[in-house]
Structures are given as structure tokens and as C-alpha cells.
Amino acid sequence: VSRQLKEEIRRGFARLEDPLAGLLAMLESSGDWKGKGHSLWYCITTELQLWIKAHPAVPQSGTKLKKLQTHVLGMLSQCPANLLDPLISIYQLHTADRNYLLEHVSHLYLQGNYKEAVILSIKLKLQPDQDVEKMCTPLLLQDKANLVEDYVAEYPELQRKLLQTLDTWCDPSFNIREITRPYQGLSRYKPEKFNHRVLSKLVFRLLERFNVDSALCPNVINQRHLRTLNYLFYKRFVEKTMTEENWADHIQSTVGENRWLQGHLVQSLLRHCNARGAARWAQHCRVPPEMLPQAVAEELRKLHIQDRVEEVIKADNYEASKKKDYYQLPIPRENIHFLQTWEEMLKCWEKVLQPGQVVGVDMEWKPSFGMVGKPRVALLQLALKDEVFLLDLPRLLEQAEAEGEKEKLAHFIQMLYSDAAITKLGYGMVGDLSSLAATCSALKDTEKQMQRVVDLLAVDKQVDGLSPEHSHKERGVRQPEKGLSLLVQHVLGKPLDKTEQLSNWEKRPLREEQILYAASDAYCLLEIYERLCKDPESFGLGSDLTDSLVGKQSKKPRAKKQLNKQEAPSPSGQECQGPRTEPSCPPAPISPREFSVVCDTMLQGLGRYLRCLGVDVRLLDNEDDHRKAAEIARQEGRVILTSGLPYQTLRSQVGEGRCFSVNCSEKAKEQALQVLKHFNVQVSLNDIFSRCQ
Predict the structure, then answer these.
(1) Whole-angstrom Cα distance, residue 106 to residue 425?
(2) Polar residues bias located where (predicted)?
(3) CA distance 488 to 471
(4) What pLDDT is recorded for position 481?
(5) Can you identify the CATH homologous superfamily of domain 335-464+483-549?
(6) How far apart are the first and last CA of the chain?
(7) CATH pick for 592-679 out of 3.90.70, 2.30.29, 3.30.70, 3.40.50
(8) pTM of the predicted model as reported, rounded to 2 decimal places
(9) Measured between alpha carbons, how far is 557 from 571 in angstroms, rounded to an integer?
(10) 3-state secondary structure of 152
């Protein structure tokens, strides 16, 4: 806004006998003051606010001010968001009678203006005198969880009350219809967004955001642990990809002393084992004998040494077969070093930080099984040609902090990643770095600083003949190989043994099997890289493999590592022609109005966000077939936005550059920013909310 206009506005207020009453009269006489954006009325209102600060004698008090406050309160529910704060300040609504303000908000609520009632309550800080369940329920039914979070953000007691209410609703025996019934006629009511699963996710988000003890929400926590329990039984008894030790570790940490979960554990044991097997596992998992059915309790008493002898023989046979079927570490065991002290780290530092060095990098963490927060790295593996270093990250960080030098480990890791003379190999490296930053905040900018990094996840997308189906046929009944394990099988001849992948990596000491697994995961990267560089053509790669992989440091995979590292993430942020080629220059800038997309199933959040920015968006429903996106894209000339496995199918059905994969683990805002950046879409203020929502 021009300085001349601002000065004219201030002169106008100076000439008015009652500027406060004058502003309200002007707003009411104008038809466009309710419009969105930084309108003329926003400018006039904020200028009056500044003018009042310069003229402290202007603000009124007493009966006249009360009349003005009553007047402006009636207007607030209709005014745009950007006028709320200036008007509340100008008319000193924080000093108004609290009971009157509460009564006004209650009136708005009874009229069905739930959103407006809550926004006004937040602005006037009325929450401590309100019923949090009553105020928030209609907002949750309208899928306005963000506004609910803002409502309780500054009040820990209200946060706890809200979480307890949500947890009560998440009890499997609770009938959700009891909550929804009074609001059947609610506008913008979204019953599909109000169920146990969605509410459970909201509880975990609030627990993390407000740092509240999860013990406050036993229903949600128990249900999450029960899902983990069922998943562990599937991994052990159906998929048969988890060792007894790993399974028992996770079962014990999941169930603990919780009687309700122990009861479900016993039921699951009886479904998957005979009485003798159930008794053995019940003993292993320390289930109290009084919780066991009589037949299982009887078998528990009969268990003897012979059972354990048989298990040892089976284990020995299994180890012999593993050597035949899986990739084996080619270096002797004594060349694997488990580092827990800074003195040991210095020796590692001297060897790793050598110019010309090639280092395989991997990380392990305890599986979260869907619990809150980013995983914290428990083990950092660095593989050189002749030896592997396993860094006990929690122990080393603890020791460095105790010595008052908590930055020194972070300094070593940053030096490694930023050294252009050292080649770093990884698989899904950006996901690893995200977890590393969650473990040590000093490492949060490592991704921006890294140089000479080769992420073999990008190679994974290019290697000819790489498919889980092909692997499955070759290896018979075993689960098909995926991700890094599939790449290792294709390039080196045998897959990785992933049975230790879901280990409890925080438990010390690590078992020998865990140590060998961790070392293999990092060392195999060196062998893959060496083989591909020697003979790239036989794997369908260009002869300039080394230059194309290492030379373009700006090009980093956008995919994050998932719970199961062997499951290769979708090529997030990759254009449909794949990661081998990179455009010589970015596309010409376009406005959102020139950009039209079709969002695949499960990306409605991204679609709605882009529509808010003025993009022409078509949304698929969750029930639609993915192929419908390609059909719409061809008919209407749209770009397909998708995620995960459908990307590979859809990219082949449209022209080059017309299919883009986003990271499904990111929020809609981050996904939208990624899309806008890739297609060089330039958003202006006029584009925002320019389309019907």
C-alpha cells in the first residue's frame, strides 16, 4: 500500500470526532469488507490501530466503549480472519465483561456457527471457562482437527481433557454413533473422517505435539500394541521371516506386564500353535501361569531339557542352510568392530576420513510398529574395503554429552558427508539422514551439506530385470526379495538375509546374528558399487555410471526409508522418465491456472491443498481404480500425481514428464511444495482461493 494512501487514511481519522464509531459505520456501509485477503479495509483497520497507538488519549472507556464492543462483537463472526486481531485490539475486547463474551460465543455455537465460536474463543482466550468436548466435537465431525489443536494449544489441562475424551471414544466397545447422532444435520459433516482409526491417529499426533504422557490414553495405546502383536504373529508364523529371538524380544517389549495384552497373546498362541508350542512360547514370553488354559499350563509343567536340545540342533541346521542361500560377508569376523568409546572412535575416524576412500553407510533403529515420532538411530554402520565399524550411537552420544563435548560425534559425521574427496554409498539415504537428525539435532542440516554421495536406491530404479516377481520364481516358496535385498541378489547372485532386520537394535549387548547382519547391510553396498562400475552395460546402465551418479550432487533421492528397509520406497519426487536423466534446465515458470492435475487415490489432501493455491485439480475417490487417473490425464491433458507402486504402472500410460510421484509419508503441504517446485509453478496472492473449494 502506498505511503500516500496511508497518510490520507490517518488524516481522515484525525478529522473524525469518534474514529472508533466511524470505522464501524464505514465497515457496515461497505459491501466488500467481508472479502478475503489484504483488502482496503484491512489497510484502513490496521492504520487506525497504529494511529491509536500514536494518540493514546483516543481510546474510550465506560458506557460508550461497552456499546462499541457490543456492536463489534456482532460483526466479528462475519469478518475475514485478517481483521479479527486488529478489531479486537482497537475495541479492547480483552477488557470486556467475560461472562458477556462467553454468552456471545455460546449464542454463536447454538446457531450452529461452531467454527466461528471456536475461533473467537481462541482470540479472546475463553477456553478455560468452556467445555472442551462440547466445543471440539462438531469441529472434529467437520474434519477441522487443526482448529481443535489450536483451541487447546496453550492449555495443558484442556489438552489432557481432550485426549481423555478422544481415548474414551477409541474404546472398541464405544458406539461412535452416540457422538454423531445429535449432529446429523451438520453442514460439511464428514462421517468418514470420524472413526476409531482416524481418531486414534489424531490422539498420537496430539500426544507428540503436546508431549503428553501416553499413559493418559490406555485404549489407543492398547489397540496400537494389539495391532503390533498381530503383526508380529504374522511375521513369525505366517510369513516366517522373523527369528525366535527377535520375535520374543518384541513380544516382551510390546506386551510387558499388561494383563489385557497378555490375554490376547495367549489367544493368539493357541490359534497358531498346539498346546505344547503355546506352552513353550508362553514360558519364553513370561506369561503368568494363572492366565493359561489348563491344557497349556499342563504342557508348561512337562517342558524339559530335550526340547531345548532339539531347538539347538534345528538352529544349527538352519545356520548351515543360510550360508548356502544368502549373501555372505567376505571379510573375517575380527574385522568387524563394535565401537562404544571415543578412543575407539578416533581409530575409526583416522581410517574413514581418508581422501579417495569409499564408504558404505547404513543405519539401524528399533522398529516403531507405527508408534509416535521419528525413529532414533541405534546403530551407524561404516564399511570400508577390509573392515566394518559399528557405532553404538546412543552410547557414544551419551558419553560425549557427559564429557561436555556432545557436538564432537556430530562433527565427525558432518565431516564424512561433506567431504568431496570421500565417496559415500547408501540406500534410501535421505530417510536415514532424517532419522539421524531426530537422534542428534546438530545433524539436521547434513542433507544440505553432503557431497559425493551415491544413493543406490536411484540405481535400483534403472537396473534391468529387477523385479520381486522374478526373485520369487527363482527362490521357490520363500517371500520375494525387495529393495536392497533384491538389488544384492541381482548384482551379486544371492539376496541379503533379512531375518534380523526387525531386531530390537537398542538392546545391548547385540547378538552375534545382529552384528553380522548390520555389517553385511553396509558392506554389500561396496560390492554392488564395484560390480556396477566395472560392468554397467550388463545391468542396463550407461557406461558413464560413476560420473552420472557422483557428479550431480543436487540430485538426491527424495524417498524416505520405511519401517522395513528392504521395501524400496516409491521414487518420491522422481519424474516419470526415472532418475537417470536430469533436465538441463528447469521448465518455464507457469501460473497455477495453467497447471492441471489429476490426483490418484489416497492423495485427496494434496489435491485440496493445490486447489487452494489455484491449481486445476481432479480428485479420484479411494474406491476408484488407479488406471482411471491415466484415462483422465489423456483425455484432459492433465499431469498425474500419484504415490507408491501405481507410479510404475501409470508412468507407462502417459507421455514423458506427465506422471509424478510424491512421498506418501509427508503431509499435504510438503507434497504440494514438492510438486510446485518440480513443475516450476509460481503462486501469487491472487491465485490463493481463486478456485471454488
Answers:
(1) 61
(2) 565-575
(3) 11
(4) 66
(5) Ribonuclease H-like superfamily/Ribonuclease H (3.30.420.10)
(6) 28
(7) 3.40.50
(8) 0.62
(9) 7
(10) helix
